[in-house]
Design a protein that fits this description.
The structure is a single chain. With about 160 residues, this protein is α/β, with parallel strands linked by helices. It has one domain: Rossmann fold (3-Layer(aba) Sandwich). A five-stranded parallel beta sheet has the order 3-2-1-4-5, with helices on both faces. α7 links the parallel β4 and β5. It is about 50% helix and about 15% strand.
Length: about 160
């Protein structure tokens, strides 16, 4: 089975060290190590993690070997602007719109995030996907790590 192609936004890396999100995030990264996921990390994530605590930077550096780094393209910037123009997010949160745009244009199956305000939100997800459809892209599944980790079946 081929690994799922997933885009991670910055907060997933910090989530591994946050009391509230650590268990699910650490399990997610354990499943990355088994080959279940192919990570797509953008240069934007790398820039945002640059000033994070050392354990967060170390985790990002380790995880880079399980995927690829992508860079903002004109296509991604145009899609980001379409989200902003449609009012999905305000310009203050343009980087969050860029994360979603980059996940979309790089053909990821999912974007994984702990950002429940601007990304993993029941009102934002259909709006992102409506713009994706208008712009000719397929819908993007948007989840938290908790929603994508594999749970062993209890017998």
């Amino acid at each position: 089975m081929r690994p799922l192609r997933v885009y991670l936004d910055t907060c997933v890396f910090g989530g591994a060290f946050d009391v509230e999100f650590a268990n699910a995030t650490q399990e997610f990264f354990a499943q990355v190590r088994t080959g279940r996921f192919h990570l797509v990390v953008s240069a934007l994530v790398e820039d945002e993690v640059e000033n994070a605590p050392m354990p967060v930077r170390d985790l990002l550096n380790e995880m880079l070997k399980y995927g690829e780094t992508v860079f903002p393209t004109e296509e991604a910037l145009q899609l980001q602007q379409a989200y902003l123009d449609a009012g999905v997010l305000t310009p203050k949160w343009a980087d969050d719109a860029l994360h979603v745009a980059m996940a979309t244009v790089t053909n990821c199956s999912y974007i994984i995030s702990w950002n429940f305000k601007h990304i993993v939100h029941c009102e934002k997800i259909p709006r992102y996907n409506a713009i994706n459809e208008i712009q000719g892209y397929r819908p993007l599944a948007i989840y938290s790590p908790l929603e994508v980790i594999h749970y062993e079946e209890e017998i």
